[in-house]
Amino acid sequence: MTDNITNFSLNDITGNVIRPFQLESSSLRGRIVRFDKVLDSILDAHDYPPLVSQLLAETITLCALLSSMLKYEGVFTLQTSGDGPVTMMVADMTSEGDIRGCASFNEERVAKMQKDMIKSDAPLPLLLGKGYIAFTVDQGEESDRYQGIVELKGTTLAECVQHYFSQSEQIDTGIKIAVGKHDNHWRAAGIMLQQMPEDGGEKHTDKGVKPPVVSNRDEDDWRRTMMFLESCKDEELLAPELHGHDILIRLFHEEGVRVFEPIELQHVCRCSIEKVQNIVRMLSEEERKEMREEEDTSMTCEFCSKTYILDSDLSKPNM
Q1: Residue 214's pLDDT band (cuts 50, 70, 90)
Q2: Binning pLDDT at 50, 70 and 90, where does residue 313 land?
Q3: Surface-to-core class of residue 216, CB atoms within 10 Å of its CB (0-12 exposed, 13-18 middle, 19+ buried)
Q4: N or C end of the chain: smaller count of CB under 10 Å?
């Protein structure tokens, strides 16, 4: 079978791009994403401990994979919330490929957790504790806001997402993610595959809704493809010298790979003077009074760490 891999851009080689693909023999659909400079830009805006930076990199990679599976015009957000040392992880991506991320955590608890991480086989429960993972699609005021929430269940973020699709969407989903540092620069990559049921999904009849139909052949295709996916090593996913297409061919050359137009990624924060002004206007007079008593009145964006210095009347921020 001929592998249809054409029309790649410079970013396909250097990273920072999502490439949709389909396996011809089984009609499984997927995405491969690779980050380099964009991930560095996001993480360098913060001074997070390595454990937090790595977990945020995984969140950002998952956000890119999940958002690229959807058709939307707006913002897709992936957020975790738990009672562990890392209380929150947030990454969001616009339909234009603008992506960002940030984290909230307890410094003392994260530092103490470092030794436990070395000994434990379940780092995610140690870091996040009990909580949930939420997927949100916001397409503006004229469209309904969609949100899916599922319990944090699994030893990795990828397992949590797979659990969500299995339980809530009844779609088999396989995800492989790798994060690491090369030459003191962060890199991340991920592959996501989904099994689409025959006839496109649910059927509506006069007797109600029939569940998706999955044949024995589909199951065989799925198991075989998951074996190929699991054979991919982290070193391969992160190797700067390997093109994303090379990875797909190595894994799925027996299946036939058809690739589609890429989504290029860039680190863009949506904070602005106007948004800061709106936040200030929403404060009560008592809150403004408390802020005036501070020697340095400022507001800092949690996503990009950009600081806006406010006027004495707290109505107009200065750059």
Answers
A1: very low
A2: low
A3: exposed
A4: C
Q: Which residues of 197-209 are buried (b: 16+ CB within 10 A; e: fewer)?
A: beeeeeeeeeeee
pLDDT band with cut points at 50, 70 and 90 for residue 11: very low
User: Letter for the amino acid at 201?
Assistant: G
Contacts of residue 262, Cβ cutoff 8 Å, sequence gap at least 6? 8, 9, 11, 12, 17, 18, 19, 20
3-state secondary structure of 177: strand
Cα 159 from Cα 257, distance rounded (Å): 25
Selection from 72, 76, 73, 78 nearest residue 57 by Cα: 78
- Rounded to an integer, the average pLDDT of 145-153 is 87
Distance from the Cα of residue 300 to its chain's centroid: 23
Characterise 314 by phi-psi region: left (phi > 0), alpha (psi -120 to 50), beta (else): left
